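User: Hey, my collaborator sent me this sequence without any context and asked if I could get a structure. I don't really work with proteins. Can you help?
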Amino acid sequence: MDGGTLYSIGELARRTGLTVKTIRFYSDRGIVTPADRTPAGYRRYGPDAVARLALVRTLRELGLGLDAIRRVTDQQLTLGEVAAEHAAALNVQIGILRLRRAVLITAAGREPTIEEMERMHRLATLSEAERRRLIEDFLDVVFEGRHGDFDHAAARRSLTPELPHSPTEEQVAAWVQLAELSLDPDFRAGVRSMVDDHVADRPDGATVPPRPDVVAVTRELVGAAVASGTSPDSPQADPVVATLTAGCALAVGRPDDGELHDWLSHRLEAANDPRWDRYVGLLAVINGWPAPEPLAPVIDWSVTALRTRTAR
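Assistant: No problem. I've predicted the 3D structure and written it out in structure-token form, which is a compact way to encode the shape of the chain:
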């Protein structure tokens, strides 16, 4: 057929794969217009209608609305411009779906009550400013009255989650769990106690780093022994324990004696809160940091090693 050929709506439907009803709808909306009408009033379409409807079909399959499609077909917008607009809208929808899926995955793992489900959804959909206020409230409780005792700003930064603008489902799920943890009064009191112990551990006049000195020393000096499978009550553990007590004695400015060993075992036990490992692990997921080694195995090993040798 040449360029002057006109198609009936039925012929146009066969060429495009669209239904007559759909083509008539597009025609009524002005997206594709007839080139002519028969004396009886039947619509006739030119060859350009085939290409136009093929474009419309593609854009509809991509999810574009009719208003956007008309702007393209009327040449008010280029395809690139409308694609950019639609991609931005899809990004918002994808973010919402990711939030919903993360909440559902979290809920599926714990059989929550209706109230817990509502709280998880609320935490997942907080604005950036609301998330910041929630964490600031948690840290205000943890560090209340301790601003001059150590690098307070650095300590807060090290405990602050920064959820990206386009978080993964894993990051959203981690945020929900971390937010719930930070709202737990018992956990808040436990972290506050860790800060208080941390300040109390320092030698007179010393500057305290963001983490408890003896816990940091223990992680550094005992981690290799735990990783290698060294038994805490074996002779092979003796030099590790000796290095540990010497390092902690230096950190707190006390003699390396039996009194310190007994104090150290109690001090480490007080710091052995599995919720702290969980908070730090969730924080790493949210901030995209490397996964930290759990603290609990190191403390368990150290306490067992110290008490074994105290009992000898």
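In plain terms: Residues 207-211 have pLDDT under 50 and may be disordered. You can pass these tokens on to your collaborator as they are.
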